[in-house]
Amino acid sequence: MNAPRTGSGPRSAAVLALLLPLLALTACGSGATDGTAAQAARSSPAPTDDPVAAVREVDSVAALLPADVRRKGTLRVGSSIGFPPGAYYPNGPDSAPAGQDIDLADAVAKVLGVKLERQDASFETILPALGSGKYDVGTGNFGVTRERLRTIDFVTYINDGQGFAVKKGNTRLRTKVTDLTQLCGLTVGTGAGTTFEATLTAQKGVCAKAGRKPYDVKVYSENGATLTALQQGRIDVIMSTINGLRHQAAQPASGTAFLGEYHRLDVGFVFKKGSPLTKAFQAAVNELIEDGTYARILAKWGTGASAIDASRINPPEHT
Question: Is-contact 137 270, C-beta < 8 A?
Answer without folding.
Answer: yes
